[in-house]
């Protein structure tokens, strides 16, 4: 289970606190994962991609060109939330909405650092439940770069995609009258020649590594396929096959 998003009133009173149910879930599985509290299991100590994507050549595993992905180095996150502010500014996210956030928990029994952070966002799934659930094809997976996009002109505001998303990574934009979500800053940056997402550019600790998973020379590819450190995804059991990976270091 991943952290559930909080309603606005709760966030104002107690920002980014997690529910008791979520806390129990993370205590049950998170501490087993080398002290990391990610809401999923380790995909592979050897190669996360081998378990998330089908076997075969790089072209078969990563069919998009470029095949955008992000690796999040959770132990480097300092909880400054500059990523959230950068995303909000770049994508005109209203104060009640979100495209990325940093969740946290306190671990009083831990030695040294007592607080952990985990950045979350749309996982840009290769098998996205939201796309399958949408009755009007307003949300779709782009055939070129594979980002899960929103066509706000088609969206009827039924919110079925929000219920279908296993990562709770969508919100209803009241001003637009449509559901909104992270698009890896495609509209605000990538489509205009940019190479980074706003959250990555704003991060002072190199927590987020964004790039092309189909390019073996890219840093994101090399981090996902290295053998030295565990790499995992959230909610692997849903078979959503996400393009957001987590690691330490």
Structure, explained:
The protein has 249 residues and is an alpha+beta fold. The protein contains 9 helices and 11 strands. A 5-stranded mixed β-sheet has the order 1-10-11-2-9. It has a two-stranded antiparallel sheet with strand order 3-4. Strands 5-6 form a two-stranded antiparallel sheet. The chain is globular.
Descriptors:
disordered N terminus, 5-stranded mixed β-sheet, two-stranded antiparallel ribbon, single chain, 9 helices, alpha+beta, 11 strands, Alpha-Beta Plaits, 249 residues
Strand portion, in percent? 15-25%
The CATH topology is given as Alpha-Beta Plaits
Radius of gyration: 17 Å
> How many helical stretches?
9
- Outline: globular
Strand-pairing-aware structural class: alpha+beta
Query: What is the second-level CATH architecture?
Result: 2-Layer Sandwich
Overall mean pLDDT stands at: 82
Oligomer category:
single chain
Roughly what percent helix?
10-25%
Lateral strand order in the biggest sheet: 1-10-11-2-9
| Biggest beta sheet attributes | 5 strands, mixed
**Helix-strand topology string:** HHEHHEHEEHEEHEEHEHEE
The figure for the number of domains is 1
The strand count comes to 11
Low-confidence stretches: 1-47
CATH C-level category:
Alpha Beta
């Amino acid at each position: 289970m991943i952290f559930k998003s909080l309603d606005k009133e709760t966030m104002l009173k107690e920002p980014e606190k997690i529910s008791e149910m979520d806390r129990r879930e993370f205590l049950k599985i998170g501490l087993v994962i080398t002290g990391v509290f990610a809401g999923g299991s380790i995909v592979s100590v050897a190669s996360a991609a081998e378990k998330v994507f089908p076997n075969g050549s790089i072209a078969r595993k990563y069919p998009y060109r470029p095949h955008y992905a992000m690796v999040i180095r959770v132990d480097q996150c300092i909880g400054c939330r500059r990523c959230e502010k950068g995303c909000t500014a770049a994508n005109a996210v209203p104060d009640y909405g979100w495209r990325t956030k940093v969740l946290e928990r306190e671990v009083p029994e831990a030695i040294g650092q007592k607080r952990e952070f985990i950045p979350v966002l749309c996982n840009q799934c290769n098998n996205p439940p939201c796309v399958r659930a949408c009755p009007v094809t307003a949300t779709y997976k782009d055939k070129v770069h594979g980002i899960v996009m929103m066509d706000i002109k088609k969206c009827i505001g039924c919110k079925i995609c929000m219920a279908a998303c296993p990562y709770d990574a969508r919100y209803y934009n009241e001003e637009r009258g449509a559901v909104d979500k992270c698009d890896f800053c495609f509209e605000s940056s990538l489509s205009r020649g940019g190479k980074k997402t706003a959250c990555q550019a704003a991060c002072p600790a190199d927590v987020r590594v964004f790039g092309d998973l189909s390019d073996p020379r890219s840093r994101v590819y090399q981090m996902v396929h290295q053998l030295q450190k565990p790499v995992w995804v959230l909610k692997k059991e849903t078979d959503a096959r996400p393009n957001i990976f987590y690691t330490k270091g």
